[in-house]
Design brief:
The protein is α+β, with helices and mostly antiparallel strands. It has six helices and four strands. 45% of the residues lie in helices and 11% in strands.
């Protein structure tokens, strides 16, 4: 049985994707071409600290990264990412503003609810004030 994808992006969609932008950023850091996801994955394994530093920078994380990108005892479970970092998780999650969707709920009963980034920020503020 042949598996046929339900949808395949156009070349234009691939070129404009966030993943492509990230891969190009990684090419600059790696100092070599990373032609596809397999190359990107290989580089992330070869140079994990450089890869995770690139993730931090590319994603625009607000905070102090610290000296070490990761520490590892040789296992994934024992790996700690940015162990010296100081950041505010809520600040990073709520830095977007505006009327675009932040949360979309669709229930099995066809119920739907949407919160914009401004709605989400307002609700978080209300919860914070109630907790204080």
């Amino acid at each position: 049985m042949t598996e046929i994808p339900l949808w395949t992006p156009s070349a234009e969609q691939v070129a404009a994707s966030g993943m492509t932008r990230f891969r190009i950023t990684c090419e600059t850091r790696a100092g070599r071409p990373l032609a596809d996801s397999a190359d990107l994955h290989a580089w992330s394994i070869e140079k994990p600290a450089a890869f995770w530093e690139t993730v931090w920078d590319h994603c625009g994380v607000v905070g102090t990264r610290g000296v070490r990108a990761l520490t590892s005892n040789g296992t994934m479970r024992g790996t700690r990412f940015f162990p010296d970092a100081e950041l505010n998780f809520a600040e990073n999650l709520l830095r977007t503003r505006g009327s675009a969707d932040a949360l979309v709920f669709r229930g099995e009963d066809k119920a739907e609810s949407r919160w914009s980034w401004d709605d989400l920020r307002a609700m978080v503020s209300r919860l914070q004030q109630a907790l204080v």
